[in-house]
Each structure stands twice: as structure tokens, then as C-alpha cells.
């Protein structure tokens, strides 16, 4: 076990996890081998002296906003009250995204709740003014903000003027569940994604010039839209195992992306990399921390269907390049994004920003 920092004076740290949506149902349903292990991060953090306590947002009458989407459901005033009343001896509170931190910051002054509150990721961009108002209140007041990428840190400094207490944490992937498999023959292409940062229009424009079958796993392509003959769209939900099978059946994974503040495409990039698949990625500053152009992927300009077609065609003609990119991507993921590496970074930040650390953030 890695010991807690000597200067902390504590042997273990108690961290409250407040997700924006309920995590416990997935944990209850989990069976080994059916998907990424939802308990592995807890186990990894425990080796660093950190005990996590999960407190999901309420449902039904216990949380009147539960049915209004994750941003509103995570505000959950009863959960916040429970934290400040029953968990005053916690060492740190982790708000997964920004909403859970809002009621806590409002309650701090009237309840003398002095447990540090940090954000783990936050929702940037979009046109929802409510989320912007929440961020405007929360960002200056939490003790720390752990972001996915350098571009997000830069945006927080530019937009809110916050220069201290913003740390690049990165992203994680279960490299035991997503593992390399043999390349299929004939070669096929996969693109996955449901968020607004995906640019499937550019991929569809490139598709007629690509001599291979293309699978799009998304609901973002309208059901009635005419498709090139080599494109199939999978709109129904799939299990983690079924998603892994889609990666295994592909030789090339394309992440066609728009310019976003959030790290749109990061899950696809890491899953494909962990599976040892060659990647073609649209350049987006928010995901540059997770790729090495020319080494772990081929990078193309956003919205450029000609460049996208050329990159995919090159990989179809160069199987050795596919293999090399996939091998390098797997190595990158193992070194930087596998759960042991991620947990090591996360644990250091949790100790630093806890009541036992020296912080570095701003106090609300």
C-alpha cells in the first residue's frame, strides 16, 4: 500500500463522492467480465489510503428535480443537507460535475461546513444558461477543480479568471476489459458516439470514397436519412460487451469531432486505443492530451471530409501502419489512462486538497 503523504498527519482519508447521476444501480447490476469494473477505482484509491463513500442523488419524492435531467437532479438539496449534517468529519467532498457543489456552497456559510469541496470534471460549452449560472457560482468557490485536459484549464483561466486550484487529472479506462484482439479480415471501420461533439456528417460525406464497410454506433444520425451503401447505423443501445465486440470487429476507429470545450470523443479514443485499434481523429484541442498524432493516431482537420477519406484509405492500404498505431495507442493508454495510473494522480490531488493537505484552491 502506498502511504499517505507524511505531512498530512493522517493515515487514511475519507472522500465523499457525489455523482451527477446514480452510480449504485450499475454497481448492483455488475457481474465480473460484463463491463468495465465500477469498483476498481475505489480499490485503487484504497491502496493510496483513501476510503470513498458514494452518495447518489435522490429519486422520486426525495428529489423533486430527479426527472428533469442530470444537471437539475444533481442539485438535490436533501443530499446536500445530508452531507453537511451527517458527514462533517469527511476529509473531502468530490462533486462529479458542477451541480452537486452548488447547494453545498450555499450551505457552507450557514452550517459552518468546512470540508473542502472539489469538482471532478465540469460541463463546458453548450447554450444552456442554467448550467452557465451554476458554473459562474461554483467555479470561484470550490477549493479545487480537476479537469480532463489542458484546454479546459486554459478556458477556466480565460473565462472565470481562476488561475489557482485547477488541476489536470485526465481520464481513465479499464484496460482489463478493453484489451487488444486480432485484426479482423476484411478490414472495417467503426465510429461511436452520442454527444453533440460528434461530426458524423463529415464521415458520411467521406464514406462513398472509402472501400470498406462502415459501422456508426449512434442515435445522432436521423433514422430517415439516406446513407451511402457502405454505411450501417446501429441506433439501439448496446451492452458494454456488445460495444467491445464492435471494436473487436473493426480495424480502424474514426472519431469525427467538432470543436468543443468538453473532451468530446475521449471515451471512444481511449476504448479504441485500449483495444489496439488504429485511430483517425478530427483535431479538437480538448482531446489533444489523449493522442499523439502520427504515433497513436492520424489527425485530420475538423470538418474536412477529403482529409478524413484520405487518412482512412491510407490505413486500409497500410495494415502495418494500422498495427503500429494500435500498438502505440495501447501503450499510451496503459501508461497514462489505465486505472492504476489515473488513481495515482487522483489520490495525490485528493490528499492535497483535503483538510489534511495544503490545498491551493480558493475557499467558498
Give a verbal description of the structure.
There is one protein chain. This protein has a 6-stranded parallel β-sheet, sandwiched between helices. It has 364 residues and is of the alpha/beta class. It has helices spanning 24-29, 40-46, 70-73, 77-86, 101-111, 129-138, 150-160, 200-206, 240-248, 266-274, 305-317, 319-336, 339-353; strands at residues 13-18, 50-54, 92-96, 117-120, 144-147, 166-168, 188-192, 213-217, 231-234, 252-255, 278-282, 298-300. The mean pLDDT is 93. α8 (200-206) links the parallel β7 (188-192) and β8. α4 (77-86) crosses α5 (101-111), α8 crosses α11 and α10 packs across α12 (319-336).
What structural keywords apply?
single chain; 364 residues; alpha/beta; 6-stranded parallel sheet; 13 helices
Task: Give me the secondary-structure topology.
Layout: E1 13-18, H1 24-29, H2 40-46, E2 50-54, H3 70-73, H4 77-86, E3 92-96, H5 101-111, E4 117-120, H6 129-138, E5 144-147, H7 150-160, E6 166-168, E7 188-192, H8 200-206, E8 213-217, E9 231-234, H9 240-248, E10 252-255, H10 266-274, E11 278-282, E12 298-300, H11 305-317, H12 319-336, H13 339-353
Parallel strand pairs: 1-2, 1-3, 3-4, 4-5, 5-6, 7-8, 7-10, 8-9, 10-11, 11-12
**Major beta-sheet overview:** 6 strands, parallel
> Percent range for helical residues?
25-40%
In whole angstroms, the N-to-C terminal distance is 34 Å
Task: Let me know the average pLDDT.
Answer: 93
Number of strands: 12
- Reading side by side through the largest sheet, how are the strands ordered? 2-1-3-4-5-6
Strand content: 5-15%
- Given helix and strand content, the structural type is alpha/beta
Number of helices: 13
Q: Unreliable segments (pLDDT under 50, ≥5 consecutive)?
A: none
